Amino acid sequence: MTQPTTAAQPPEGRYGRRGNNESDRRLKVIGAVCGVLGLGLIAWLGGSYLLRETKINGSVPTFQVLSDSEVQLHLTVRKSDGQAGTCTVRSQGDDHGVVGVADFPVPATGSSYDATVTLRTTARGTTAELLGCTPTK
After folding, report:
1. Deepest of 47, 57, 79, 97, by most Cβ within 10 A of its Cβ?
2. Rg of the chain on CA atoms, in Å
């Protein structure tokens, strides 16, 4: 006599449930919603960054140490015509301690501003760096 043959199946409950389409659909919807929210967050952060960008951008291309108490620097500023502001510059010594900080006014006339300014220091400065420029209201 022959035994009826049946397909081999894994033990019940050992490998999880099979064929649960509702669960798969729910995961796809949750993933799509999270993706849309993530893209929206990235767009919002990027837009706010671009709108927050300052109207005054500056740099210090060159500087020269004149003495133990002075650093002369070239301040270059690009700005909107009619926009006044203030640029903050600092100098550090050999030990990386701050030896001088000053704010230099930027006039409203023109769309650029170039000036050679002198920064007073408490000790010999070895650097001159622009910390930032802020527009006046």
Report:
1. 79
2. 32
